[in-house]
Amino acid sequence: MIIDDHSRFLVGGGLFYNDNAYNFQKVLKDAVAAHGIPSKLYVDNGCSYSNEQLSLICGSIGTVLLHTKIRDGASKAKIERQFRTLKETWLYTLDLDSITSLAQFGGLLRDYMRTYNTSVHSGIGTTPMERYQQTRSSIRMPKSREWLEECFLNRITRKVNRDSTVSIDKVSYDVPMQFISSKVEIRFLPDDMAGAFILYEGEHYPIRPTDKNENCRTKRNNTPSIDYSKIGGEG
To answer: Region annotation Disordered: residue ranges (predicted)?
Structure first.
């Protein structure tokens, strides 16, 4: 769940089988697409929120990433209060036996968020949506959907092997031979490696899972190795 600090407006939320960094990135991307780029993102120190990929994403969209102090419950009071409200007024009232899929459960969560955002909040004297709309003119929106998608790509650096491959999460991928022995930046979505590519001088160079049979038959113009025992003549 992501909440706007000023208005209490729920800008993002989702249900997943696993609590991990990539699932939070998906919630954040949808929130940014729908409601704009936050100037600051204040999160706790869990692995889902304290990682290099989230730092890179926030840098790409121009958001300052801040983390709460360890064991400082007061710093998370608003979101913790929201979780308590969600449980007491929504989750505990559901007939869980009637929910047959995660998609259905997620739809019910979105219904809750819409109701919450359009109901008067006692702490601010208006609805979260109305208060959020009052500051709408100062909110930065993404340049385009394509720009946003690229900002949220995960990125890693790898040195290309002499057989023109790299390894990502123990899976081998073929890369263009021009990058042999070079360090490259690879961008990808963890759940869609078919779209992974090397970013080099603004151009995209696709990579693909290694076909070992094809790879071993490919001729490469590798630089010949140096036999250092022969340098300087015979000993």
So the answer is: 210-235
- The model's pLDDT over 19-73, given as tens digits with 9 standing for 90+, comes to 999 999 999 999 999 999 999 999 988 899 999 999 999 999 999 999 988 777 6
18 and 133: one domain? yes
Kindly state the helix (H) or strand (E) to which residue 19 belongs, with its residue range: none
Beta strands in the chain (DSSP E): 2-3, 10-12, 40-43, 64-67, 154-159, 165-168, 171-174, 183-189, 192-200, 203-206, 208-209
Q: Per the structure, how many domains does the chain have? A: 2
Which among 106, 44, 31, 94 has a CA at the least distance from the CA of 72?
44
Q: Please check whether residue 38 is in contact with residue 5, taking contact to mean a CB–CB distance below 8 angstroms.
A: no
Q: Which residues of the chain have pLDDT under 70?
A: 73, 213-235
| pTM: predicted TM-score of the whole model, two decimal places | 0.84
Q: Are residues 160 and 107 in the same domain?
A: no
